[in-house]
Amino acid sequence: MSAQNPDTIDTSLTVTTEKPSTAIKNLPIATMIAYRRKGLSIEEIGKLVGCSKQNVYNRMKNMLAEIDSLDHFKDNRADTLAYLQTKLLNTLTDSEVKKISPGSRITGAAILYDKERLERGKSSVNIAYADYTKSIDEIDAEIARIEDEME
Q: Residue ranges per domain, the chain?
């Protein structure tokens, strides 16, 4: 039995009278994950992929907590990463920093500087303003030339 496309889930769930398969082999894990992320229960996923809810659970048991918390993590990613960064930076002692190679210290400082500027809403990339104004001037000249030809 082939699995349904998770993007076209029929939430009415047609219940079949066929007995679900009890074999775990070849259960489409990516499809089951997609169904779970759309909020379907283990039992509903089993019906859609044609196997028992126990088989679905067995196949997904090691990842259920991660799947169910993924959206929560994504919604709170910035705060989670800020917490981890603070924790990491607070564990560094002066003697540990001195043990880091000079190149790595410079790279780390540069990365932190870029991230700080990004968080403060400042530029983190330098743009050659002259190149853009030159391009605009060239475009304006081309427009003027085309307009002259049309008259």
A: 6-71, 76-119
